[in-house]
Amino acid sequence: MSLQSAAAPAAASSTTRPSMVAAHHPIYGDASVVILAPTARPKPHEGEVLVAVHASSVNYGDQVMLTGRPWLVRLVFGLRRPKRRLLGIDVAGVVAAVGPGVTDFAPGDRVFGQSEGAWAELATVPAKALAHLPDGVPFAAAGAVPLAGMTALQGLRDHGRLRAGERVLINGASGGVGHLALQVAKALGAHVTAVVSARNVAQARALGADVVVDYTRQDFTATDARYDLILDVAGSQPLRACRRLLQDGGRYVSTVGNLRFLLKLVVARLFWRNLGFFNQRADAADLHTLAGWLADGRLRPVVERSYPLDKVADALAAFAHGPNGAKTLIVR
Ligand SMILES: NC(=O)c1ccc[n+]([C@@H]2O[C@H](COP(=O)([O-])OP(=O)(O)OC[C@H]3O[C@@H](n4cnc5c(N)ncnc54)[C@H](OP(=O)(O)O)[C@@H]3O)[C@@H](O)[C@H]2O)c1
Known about the structure:
The chain has helices at 60-67, 74-77, 139-142, 146-159, 178-187, 201-206, 239-244, 259-269, 284-296, 312-321; strands spanning 19-24, 35-40, 48-57, 90-98, 110-114, 122-126, 130-132, 167-171, 191-196, 211-214, 227-232, 246-254, 275-277, 303-308, 327-331. By secondary structure, the chain is an alpha/beta fold. Strand 11, helix 7 and strand 12 form a beta-alpha-beta unit.
């Protein structure tokens, strides 16, 4: 994987403002189109915070923005070329400056949240998508959490209406979203069945799953067990088979971003009221909840592999190739 360090067109404005290094993708493509280039230092606008980035991680959303696939997303991100050329969503770091109207954060604060352009030395983040990071929580842990953790929390608590004592099955409980969902479900007081591949059985047990199903040996839908909620992160089984596993009033919630699977969900939703799918949204209060669990040890992100910022293209190539395990980290 070659990583260019040449100046990108965006570097032109760096003559008027001090510059920093950031990952760009001037065109859609695979990891080879990503360049690390000098870029004008961002300025925090009204309601924004400038963060010196210490850690970030790779999410499917980054992959979608990089490749422009599925094609439908180009209606939002730019038809022929990406409108937004900076990459990286998750951010953990230290506040460098605040924009007008920001009162909750000050330079020097340790924070984490969701940005547009986190694979850089500095990133601007809306204050409403940022939370303080408790002392003792390493940036490397916090950088793995924002988007995937928010998806897990909102999927289980808000869309799945999971309550303490209920039984939840998480299909895909070892990946970026799933291994955090497993721990979030435990923190919410649920009984958790984790569906993972053989290589992740021990991890699921160590993270607190009450029951672990190895999908390479057992079909989780061929069982008499019943659940109050299925959180489907993998979308590997027919919806009809999943529905059969639910108690009366049981819910099914999917995070799966695959277009074909989404179409199936849209059709099934016409006949199945307790079926949900959603897009996570950045939310400071939810980040605060996750920060508390990071601090008290109930949330322990698993880092599968870690890359320095100047090897971000290698990280993306490895992520596209898989298998991905839990999280792929990008650190300063
Ligand atoms: N809606 C939202 O807001 C939102 C946010 C984030 C992500 N997403 C979507 O959520 C999905 C998962 O994201 P992610 O980052 O967690 O992906 P990931 O890290 O690749 O995880 C995928 C999971 O699926 C499991 N899996 C693969 N094949 C399986 C099978 N046949 N049966 C059961 N499990 C299987 C994997 O288990 P093994 O590794 O053990 O094989 C792994 O646990 C993606 O579609 C992504 O686009 C949606």
